[in-house]
Amino acid sequence: MSTVVETRDHDGHHGPAKGFTRWLFTTNHKDIGTLYLWMSFIMLFVGGAMAMVIRAELFQPGLQIVQPEFFNQMTTNHGLIMVFGVIMPAFVGFANWMIPMQIGAPDMALPRLNNLSFWLLPMAFGILVSTLFMPEGGPNFGWTFYAPLSTTYAPSTVNFFIFSVHVMGISSILGSINIITTILNMRAPGMTLMKMPLFVWGWLITAYLLIAVMPVLAGVVTMMLMDINFGTSFFNAAGGGDPVLFQHVFWFFGHPEVYIMILPAFGIVSHIIETFSRKPIFGYSSMVYAMASIAILSFVVWAHHMFTVGMPLAGELFFMYATMLIAIPTGVKVFNWVATMFRGSLTFETPMLFSIGFVTLFTIGGFSGLMLAIVPADFQYHDTYFVVAHFHYVLVPGSLFALMAGAYFWLPKWTGNMYDETLGKLHFWLTFISVNITFFPMHFVGLAGMPRRYPDYALQFADFNAMISVGAFMFGITQLLFLFIVIKTIRGGKKATPEVWEGAGDLGLEWTLSSPPPHHSFTVQPQVK
Amino acid sequence: MEIKKTVKNLLGITLGMFAFAFVLVPLYDVFCEITGLNGKVTGPSFLSEESQAITEQRELLVQFMTHNNESMPWEFDSERSQMRVMTGNQYEAMFVFHNKTSKPMVGQVIPSVSPGRGAEYFHKTECFCFEQQLLAAGERIELPVKFIVDPALPKEIGSLSLGYTLFDITDRIEITKDLAKL
In chain B, which ranges are continuous DSSP H helix? Predict the structure, then answer.
């Protein structure tokens, strides 16, 4: 037998296996990246369908389509799936595909661990989604699962939810360990830390945030598990615990989590803007320092999510100023993106359109964040649709736009085929218009006092809610077009050159590889000047 | 090997942060004690020597509030809703517990003082909230709280509110008993 194997040529031996086992046992960074991206794409439609149920119910005042209990399950699972099942795994998919190619490595540092990190995820979401079909229904306490809603008053399926969070947390931590190890040990000779592509920088910082806060999330759900099943009283006032403690521990995880979902997006958008402006990014080192400062500050602002629970005035002021401080590094980044475009030879292909959309709309989300940071104002905004508008502006036209931009940007590299530019632009404009119809009016109803997470609302909010629902349906249907474009590109199209975009060859190592790249990205390490 | 070293360090950080989540629990209590957050009554049950040295007394209002946590069927009330007290003197306030149900139950009272900054100046020498109350079906008892307001209480605090919330912990006691049997 062994002689037969030895006579095979090297590439044939290492080429992708055939059929289902290729995906089940793969240790190849590109295959695992593809798996991550497809899983998050599927979860986007699952979580999106839940959003459609929410918007259908809220189209008119009164209860028409679903019962309040089910509505609560929809809001909860929509949030959980979009955060943990779409945005995070999609960025891990990009990391798997792009980091080895951008740092000149053949693969990730720990390929088998990489396989495990991915296959834990379908398990985690299988557990989570299965609760919806159980007699008691799925988690219904909001994606922030505040105690005692998630402990004393939770359906018994909360135990499935806790294990699902544990499994996805382990997956994230293992993935992050892999990414940091790859970046720190496998860079091409000559690529110093301050010569790394910004996407790699974004992910290095993100991965450190993940290993710092995912264990805290694991800790908080473990405390819940013990409160529910083993008679402890971490969050139960009757036993000497404190429900407010839950909020502190949760948001100690939760706020860095927000930046986990945006730092890789900053990286992707930086690459796209420099490529289509045909000049290197403005202020590279300030971009790196800005990301690092945002990450460090993210550990000292968590209580701005809980101004209304009762805090000493000094605490409120500290968290208000610390939060506002984050606007400075973020402002540096927005300034640098605009300065990169200034007097550049701009062209507006689909990735660039999504990136410009990102910069403008993410900034709107940032400004409403500043408004929310003001303590006296926050008492009015707290738990209204204004908050919903704010975080959807930073997550949908923020993180999701960056993901779509990155997908269009690197699809020709991944598949070897150019996507359909006309359809891509159509996708962008429909998305851009519908996203604003959906989320902009939420600011108005929020300021007028409409609370979040209710299946019904006062009559005065009816017109704007009908408008929001129409926008949401438009947005939902438009994403089917995205799915169509991606499949069409995979199946064929104009062949892409190794460089793909004019002048991109000088901007990153990934453009020096063929399109599609070889099975092992860099078998010989390139030399970086 | 470099890679092994990196992985070990990162696993170390992960385990450290998991432990940190649990360290946050006592840290939070310490933080609440220092700042008086949540009105946790933490002052010792006696006056410190510095406070005893203060001879100047002043009058202030102490108010009592009783709440039943949801689904707690007992009657729980204070005999008087408020008292005028002098700092440095000991007072006694009586509270009524009445188990109106037809089964024995265990209750636990959780105290809270507001404003939070006043909590550390409120010294309880005796309180039913230090222990659990087991009441037979239909049983009615009166229990005292004995307290001293510290003469060192900041001038701007003109009144203190003592809030008591009564929790039904019958089920929890049974869980603990079940666990003890294991």
Answer: 2-35, 49-53, 170-181
B107 contacts: CB under 8 Å, gap ≥ 6: B72, B74, B76, B97, B99, B132, B133, B135, B166, B167, B168, B169
**Gap between the Cα atoms of A361 and A136, Å rounded:** 39
Whether pLDDT at A11 is above 70: no
For residues A287 and A336, is the Cβ–Cβ distance under 8 A?
A: yes
pLDDT for position A1: 37
Structural contact between residues A265 and A399, judged by C-beta atoms closer than 8 angstroms? yes
A499/A510 Cα distance (integer angstroms): 9
Cross-strand partners of B62: B83, B160
Query: Would you tell me how many other CB atoms lie within 10 Å of the CB of residue A477?
Result: 12
Nearest by CB to residue B6, choosing from A181, A214, A219, is A181
Per-residue pLDDT tens digits for B99-128: 988 888 888 888 888 887 788 788 888 888
Overall residue count recorded for chain A in this entry: 529
Which residue does chain B place closest to A224, by CA atoms?
B22
Q: Which residues pair with B166 in a beta bridge?
A: B68, B109
At B169 the three-state DSSP class reads coil
Q: Which residues of B touch A315 (CB under 8 A)?
A: 35
Beta bridge partners of B82: B63
Q: Tell me the C-alpha distance between B117 and A367, whole Å.
A: 35
How far CA A197 is from CA of A104, A394, A513, A527, in Å, comes to 11, 23, 16, 15
Residues of B in contact with A239 (CB under 8 A): 108, 169, 172
Cβ A212 vs Cβ B13: under 8 Å: yes
CA–CA separation, B182 and B175 (whole Å): 11
CB A200 within 8 A of CB A191: no
> Looking at the complex, does the CB of residue B9 fall below 8 Å from at least one CB of chain A?
no
* Rounded mean pLDDT, A238-247: 86
In this prediction, what percent of chain A has a pLDDT beyond 90? 88
Nearest CB to A216 within list B15, B17, B116: B17
**β-pairing, B159-168 with B59-68?**
parallel
Q: What angle do CA B71, B75, B81 make, to 5 degrees?
A: 120
Question: Is there a contact between A230 and A159 (Cβ–Cβ < 8 Å)?
Answer: no
Q: How far apart are the first and last CA of chain A?
A: 45
The pTM score is 0.89
Angle between helices A111-130 and A29-58 (to 10 degrees): 20
The partner residue sitting opposite B13, judged by closest CB among A212, A240, A310, is A212
CB neighbourhood size of A311 (10 A):
20
B14 CA to chain A: closest CA distance, Å? 6
Is B53 in CB contact (< 8 Å) with chain A? Answer: no
Q: Which helix (H) or strand (E) holds B143?
A: strand B140-149
H helix count then E strand count, chain A: 20, 0
Q: Tell me: cis bond preceding B115? Omega within 30 of 0 counts.
A: yes
Give the C-alpha separation, A327 to B132, whole Å. Answer: 50
Instruction: Decide if B7 touches A, using CB distance below 8 A.
Output: yes
Residues of A that are catalytic: 78, 107, 143, 171-172, 255, 257, 259, 270, 304-305, 330, 333, 452
B28 contacts A248? CB cut-off 8 A: yes
Q: Is the pLDDT of residue B30 over 90?
A: no
Backbone CA torsion sign across A49, A218, A400, A29? negative
